[in-house]
Every structure is written in structure tokens, then in C-alpha cells.
Amino acid sequence: MRRTHAGPLLFAAWLVITGTCPPADAQDSDGLRQEVDALKQQLRDMQDQMRKQNELIQKLTTERAAPTAQAPPLPVRAPVPPAPAPEIVAAPPPPPAKPADPWSPSQPLTLFSGSRGYVNISFDSLIDFGWSTTSDVTALEIGDHDPNQRGFTIPNEEIVFEGAVDPYFKGFADIVFKLDEENETVVELEEVYLTTSSLPWNLQAKGGQYFTEFGRLNQQHPHAWDFVDLPLVNGRLLSPEGLRNPGARLSWLAPTPFYSELFLSVQNSQGETAYSFRNTETALFGTTPIDRPVHDLGDLLYAPRYAASFDLTDSQTIVAGVSGAFGPNASGNDTRTQIYGGDLYWKWKPSWQSGGFPFVSWQTEAMGRRYQAGAGPLEDDPDVLVPSATFYDWGTYSQVLYGFRPRWVAGVRGDWVSGQHGAPRPDNNPDRFRFSPDLTFYPTEFAKLRLQYNYDHSQTRGSDSSVWMQVEFLLGSHAAHKF
Questions:
Q1: What confidence tens digit (pLDDT) does each residue in 451-463 have?
Q2: Would you say 342 and 374 are in contact if contact means Cβ atoms under 8 Å apart?
Q3: What is this structure's pTM?
Q4: Parallel, antiparallel, or unpaired: how do β-strands 151-166 and 169-179 relate?
Q5: How far is Cα 434 from Cα 306, in angstroms, rounded to an integer?
Q6: Looking at residue 219, what DSSP letter applies?
Q7: Signed CA dihedral, 196, 200, 204, 207: sign only
Q8: Given this model, what pLDDT does residue 35 score?
Q9: Residue 175's closest CA among 200, 150, 192, 158?
Q10: What letter would DSSP give residue 200?
Q11: Burial label, 5 (beta-carbon count in 10 A; 0-12, 13-18, 19+)
Q12: Within the chain, how many helices (H) and strands (E) appear?
């Protein structure tokens, strides 16, 4: 841009604006006019330059503002701190060992536990207290684990060992302690057996000393009973201690849409635990028993059983079974005993039950015995000889339980036994009837309190009444019972 003096320019601008000129001489008018025209041109040039500069500034401003209005602003990132210098960090210490769970009564006492084997130990105790109208309580209570006197009875204290031996076998042992009427301690190896766990074709084998699979109640230990005492028919036909002996059993679970299982036991046939067979301790039907050794396989005890279970509805289940026991008896060299039984169990437990309550169950068993008595002298009078004869006796019990509220169960049972008797043999199996209501309270699953009343009537004794209180407690984990 050409530089000019401000004074002349301002003067020329004033002249342009006002359109006037100061007075001057004529000779100077042409020169002055020329100078004014030059100043006007300079002013026009300066206006053009200023206009172009303003347009350029406006254009640059518009171009810079356009991207900012179209694109969103970039996010502002926090400054990244510089990476710290690497440090050498020691390895963290191992985590502390998890503390063992506190022991509870339901936890089994497990010994020698390995990847496959274990041993669970439990102790179960029954204590009875009561009174009867007869001082000869054992004449009414014929079971070996029933109350045996007025006052207190310690009928069954058992230690149980059970567990897996290896992938192929499981073991079970039950040692029982009890006090007799004279307060003498009696020890029994009640059961000890081995069962297989991996046989093909749904087979299972058992071997050792065990309760025979006959009916429902015979396989149960006293603490699993629903009443204080043994039903009369079980004590009379099978044994006061239950039908059990050393032997072997094979079972087959049939591939049916419902539970269906066959059993066959082969056991020894001697002793008080085989009461109706080669039992030399008790004279049945008056005949003096004889020693009868085993000559062949026919002198063993055979006990087949079949059991099946069906779900009638979502809340009702029924289990039915038939059983048999066949073997020699001790009244002669070729005499035999046959026992037949049928059992039925029904249970109703609604879908809305809580903890197993409420429920209603009905259980009944019926048995019949055919006993061949050999000829020989009477036990009470050896001078009297009696001919051989065949005797029949039978009996049944039926019980109903009602779990009317959690931990409370009310029950009632009726017993009846009868038979055919012949003179001159003594009538050591009289007709009998018993009626027994009871009430059981379970404070927990490890204890129970039971109150029971018995009304007994027989042909030989008349009527008697008894009241019994039973207390049970369990330490450890006991093997589960069958449904």
C-alpha cells in the first residue's frame, strides 16, 4: 500500500463529503482540482482494499466454523500417566486351609476313608419303661426285644458298622447289647454280611448272617418298628428274635416299568433264630426235639420272596409281597416245616406335604404254618408216646399310622393268632388277640418318645393290660431303611 500524509487525505475527504472547496486563486484552481481528484482515487482504492480484506476475513471465519457445527466434538481423554517402573513382586502366599465343618449328630463317624472305601459307625439305644397287670410280662411279650418286666427294660442297644469295602462289595455289621430280667448283659452278633454292588443283569448277592427277606417286618431292627413290641404272629411262627441265620441270598431286579424283585435265600436251619425248623431249644406242639444233623442240601432252609411296588396316584403308593420258608424241623428225622406269608403296604402322602407330614399308611401281614410233628414222647411226660401228626396255625396283624402334624404320629395295631391243636399234645399255641394304640413324638430325627397301651386276651390267660413308654436316641448316621 502506498503511504500518504494524513492531513491532505483528511482534507480531501472533507471536500468530497461536503462538496465544497476553500477559496483560492484562479490560477491555482486547476492544479488543486487535479490534486483533489488524485486524493479521491486513492480513497476509492483504500475502500476497495478494505472491502476485499473484510470479505477474506469473513470467508476464513465461515470455513473454520462449518466443521465444528457438523461433527461432534472429540471426547476429552484424561492424560495417560506414565507407566511405573517395573518392580519385582514376591509370589503371594498360599490360601489358608478351609476350616473343617463342625460335627453334627447326623454326620457319620467316618474312619479309614479313601477314594473308594469308608466305614460309618452309629449307635442306637432303646429304653422301655412301663407296667402290666401281670407280673409275668414275658408271657405276654414274646419278642426278644420287647419289654420283659415291670419297670425298666433295656431291650436293644446296637452298634452298626456299614460302608463300602471296594467298588464291588459293601459291608454291614450289627452288634446288639441288651439286659435280661436278671440284669445280665447279653451280646448278640445280630447281623454281619457282605453285599455285591456291581453284578450284571440287575443281580445282587448277599452272604453272611442276616435277617431273612420274609414279609416286611422281619427285616427291620427294633428301632425301626412302629410299635414297642413284636407282632404276635411274627414271634410265634418265625422267631422271638426274627428269622435269621447264616447263609447266602441272590436277588434279581426285574426290568419292568414298576419295582419288581425276586429273592432266594439259602440259610442254615438250626437254632432259636430258626424257631420253626431245627430248633432244639423249644418243643413245638409238645414233642421232645432231637438233634438232627445236616445230611444234604435238603436240610437247609430255603426262603423265596417276590415283592412289587406301584404308584396308584401321585400321592399313593402300594407295595405287595409273598414269601415262603421251607426246611426240616427237630421233631423227627424226616419231618419238615412250611411257612407261607403275604404282606401289603399302602401309603398316602399328598404333594403339598412338608417334611413327610401329613401321611397315612396301612400295613398288614398274614402267615400260615404247616408243621409236621414226629412221633415220640411228650416233653412234659416222657412216659406218654404220641403219634406223628401235622399241625396248622396262622395269624395276622394290621396297623394304621396317621402322621397328623410334623413329628407327631398316632397309630393302632390289631394282632390275632390261632391254630389247630390235637390231644393229647398240650395246647402251647393258644388263640390270642391284642389291641394296641400308640402315640409317637419325634423331637428330631435322632430321637423319639413313644407311649403305647396293650390289651391282651388269650384262651388260657384271660385279659391283661399293659402301658409302655419307649425312648430312643441315635448317635451317628444309621443306614437307611427300605420303603
A1: 999 999 998 889 9
A2: no
A3: 0.75
A4: antiparallel
A5: 29
A6: G
A7: negative
A8: 73
A9: 158
A10: S
A11: exposed
A12: 4, 19
